[in-house]
Amino acid sequence: MPEPRFDELIHASTRLSVMAMAAAGTGVEFRFIRDQVGVSDSVLSKHLSALESAGYLTVRKIDLGRGWRRTLVDITEQGDAAFQGHVAALDAIIGPSAGRSPAAGADDYAGGGDAHGREPDGAQG
């Protein structure tokens, strides 16, 4: 199991999504990531540049001919280690509450009230 290490660069929701997609495959297409994350080309490019500058991703362009190019994104070993460490840190933070329903434990309070100590239907305890 990787060492838990919270990573501020990865934590932003768009970057976390990008890293998850890159970790799941090889040569993930730019347009696939863009469509899945729901951002513009320019916004995704900025996020990719930041992750690439940190050494977490590589971005490569393939010439398909006739002016067409395909942009592919790959995670690096350093990026994979950072991503796995970030996921482990998130698991450490949310682990104890994982799998609990929102109402779980509501009956644990004295008098059977809700999580704020209020009795159901205005009853006095």
From TrEMBL:
Chain intervals with Basic and acidic residues compositional bias:
115-125
> Which segments of the protein form a coiled coil according to its record?
none
- State where composition is biased (Low complexity): 100-109
Q: Winged helix DNA-binding domain spans which residues?
A: 15-94
Q: Which Pfam families match?
A: HTH_34 (PF13601)
> Taxonomically, which superkingdom?
Bacteria
* Region: Disordered, residue numbers: 100-125
- Which PANTHER family does the record cross-reference, listed alphabetically? BSL7504 PROTEIN (PTHR37318)
Could you identify this protein by its name?
Transcriptional regulator
